[in-house]
Amino acid sequence: MSRIIVMTSGKGGVGKTTCTANLGMALAKAGQRVAVVDADFGLRNLDLLLGLENRIVYTALDVLAGECRLDQALVKDKRQPNLALLPAAQNRSKESIKPEQMKRLIKALTKVYNFILIDSPAGIEMGFRNSIAAAREAIIVTTPEISAVRDADRVIGLLEANDIKAVRLVINRLRPAMVAAEQMMSVKDVQGILSIPLLGVIPDDEQVIVSTNKGEPLVLEENLSQAGIAFINVSQRLQGEKVPLMDLSIKKESFLIRLKRLFGG
Amino acid sequence: MTIPIISDLLEKLFGPADDPHSRDDVKRRLKIVLAHDRLALDPQTLEMMRQEIIAVVSRYVEVDFENLEFSLATDQRVTALTANLPIRRIRPLGKEPDQPIESASEAETIELASKSEIMAMDAENAAAALRQFEQNSQANSSRTPSQKELSDSSEREKGETGTTSEVTDNLIDIDPSRLGDSDEADEELTLDLEGDLADDELVGEPAPQLPDLSVPDMSVSDVARTLAQADESGKA
User: Fold this and answer.
1) Tens-place pLDDT, residues A188-203
2) I need a labelling partner for B149 at 20 to 30 A (CA). Which of A175, B35, B119, B165 fits?
């Protein structure tokens, strides 16, 4: 039985696509056969984060129009053969595909792939409805900011209404120093407010930008960054392993340490 | 010149001055906004409900209008309407209202409705529940304490009969002379209307094949060990 998981957030720019690319790659590295589906028609980006933008020939729309077979549209990753991308059309709108058609595409993918990650567009309109149509699980990506958490809460309500019961939370871009200074909501705060099970926490990490510049997901690096480790952890939890949360807490410096530092210690 | 240097020194020694924590602000704002989002009630309906609750409660007790509070709070994806209505005194039913009650004869606890009635009052059938509540309350009106003592009271105000419509009118035209006269410790009547506005099955049962991380506070030593391992693997 394939796992069909939608990655969604409500708000844009919180890291849905980054999470999809890294989780997809991490699962593929672990030996799973993974298809990542870009459901963001008109504003596709998943191809860029995976570095596969130059290899797209056909898109999901061409498959639906009968202009190619599904396997012709799938872009197989050369670094990681277990991973394939089903690209969205860039020159069309989100209304150019219907939930029923999305279901047919995903159903066809389940014959070969055992993990299907659907990268949902921002918002709660047609593109969102397409992306959740076939999903059986959802990963809510949010950041510890008021607007992102509010939108996440709205999306959680919509997923419940659409009978997607397995909804889990990834908190992205946590800044432990700000949490320690009481200037950012903690993991516990956000999870307590949204009241859904926590799947993982990704610390804010400059390496994320470096990896998008290169088109190479963080989890492919040899020396994993903090965010890279966090993504690997999330992928292991998705596969049912028990992995403790990374410790991201920053202890407040004691008076003595500050005194020492002041005198060049 | 010297003052900034000293304050800089102090900051280095004692850490930054305790500036207000925006984390508390954001949590407070988020909880309020989510309570409203989840309830999805428009402000007019909310205001109507507020007026009706005050009207019903005012039929039995005199409410302190200056200090009443209505708020929506949300916990575990369940939204609750909390009405905090400080009570000045009991209004005797069928007798002239606004007679002061001897403090010795004041009711100690005031039960607004039975638990099941409160549960029934979700957002959709608030009106129906309110009607049921009114009927029950009228049936229980014999519980209103010490009508005898009240009728003996010397401070009798004439001209108010305590019928529903007139009492409701009093809500709008509050006599300021009566608002200030009672400084005794006000009892507070809190009315919680909880409704299952969300499907809590979701919270209750995480998918079986996944580790449940919903309780993120693992012990400090666990966390430290994980970090140490991560560090080592990073160096290696």
Assistant:
1) 999 999 999 999 999 9
2) B165
